[in-house]
């Protein structure tokens, strides 16, 4: 019997974005900015692009960007912002557990690919496909939460927060890869009720020789 109570990834994320006129700030993820600013622009693949903040930031700096998400609502917002800014970005809609953009890229970015409706092994599959899409000399940048914010006492749902060590084990990269960044980054975090705390995020940058 089919379980009709649990939404599919597409249903979840379309509802997530449709419920609000704008979900994210529109600014690029700080971890991506930190890891990419000094790189020479080339081709870039932005996985889970959402409303396009990262993709637009990359395109503004000369990257030729392919932006991917499962939500048509989110990508329509990103495409509109890019068009208004006079930027050319290639948008592709994918459920990354089922399909993946073709080609090789100088930069593949996977920022905060956390989903309450997908299994941890599905994320691992996506990241292995992300690594396979990195062209020789290119980099893969993975940013993710390392846990709930310090002010969360009762997590609202189960979430998988793998360490960079676990991610590297899942990727099973060969000798042609080298780790350039493997860090935890702490930043302030404030709850909806105004409780001030902090949150730890992990960032991993690996280069394919």
Measure the end-to-end span. Answer: 48 Å
Tell me the structural class: alpha/beta
**Oligomeric state of the chains in view:** single chain
Mean pLDDT: 90
Helix content: 25-40%
| Strand runs, count | 7
Instruction: Name the poorly predicted regions.
Output: none
SS element count, helices: 6
Strand order of the largest sheet: 3-2-1-4-5-7-6
Strand content: 25-35%
CA-based gyration radius = 17 Å
Describe this entry's structure for a reader:
The model has no long low-confidence stretch (mean pLDDT 90). The protein contains 6 helices and 7 strands, in the order ααβαβαββαβαββ. With 209 residues, it is of the alpha/beta class.
Annotation keywords:
209 residues, alpha/beta, 6 helices, globular
Write the layout of secondary structure elements.
Layout: H1 9-18, H2 30-36, E1 43-47, H3 53-60, E2 64-69, H4 72-84, E3 90-93, E4 105-111, H5 120-132, E5 134-145, H6 164-171, E6 177-190, E7 196-208
Parallel strand pairs: 1-2, 1-4, 2-3, 4-5
Antiparallel strand pairs: 5-7, 6-7
Quickly describe the structure.
It contains six helices and seven strands, in the order ααβαβαββαβαββ. The chain has 209 residues and is of the alpha/beta class.
């Amino acid at each position: 019997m089919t379980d009709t109570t649990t939404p599919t990834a597409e249903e979840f994320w379309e509802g997530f974005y449709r419920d609000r006129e704008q979900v994210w700030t529109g600014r690029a993820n700080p971890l991506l900015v930190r890891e990419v600013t000094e790189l020479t622009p080339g081709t870039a693949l932005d996985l889970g692009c959402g409303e396009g903040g990262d993709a637009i930031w990359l395109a503004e700096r000369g990257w030729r960007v392919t932006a991917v998400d499962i939500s048509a609502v989110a990508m329509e917002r990103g495409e509109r912002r890019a068009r208004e800014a006079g930027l050319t970005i290639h948008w592709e809609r994918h459920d990354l557990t089922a399909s993946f953009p073709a080609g090789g890229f100088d930069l593949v970015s996977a920022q905060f690919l956390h989903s309450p409706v997908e299994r941890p092994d599905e994320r691992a599959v996506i990241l292995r496909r992300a690594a396979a899409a990195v062209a020789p000399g290119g980099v893969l940048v993975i940013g993710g939460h390392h846990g709930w914010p310090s002010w969360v006492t009762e997590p609202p749902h189960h979430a998988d927060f793998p360490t960079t060590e676990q991610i590297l084990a899942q990727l099973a990269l060969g000798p042609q890869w080298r780790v350039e960044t493997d860090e935890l980054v702490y930043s302030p975090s404030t709850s909806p009720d105004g409780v001030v705390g902090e949150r730890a995020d992990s960032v991993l940058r690996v280069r394919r020789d």
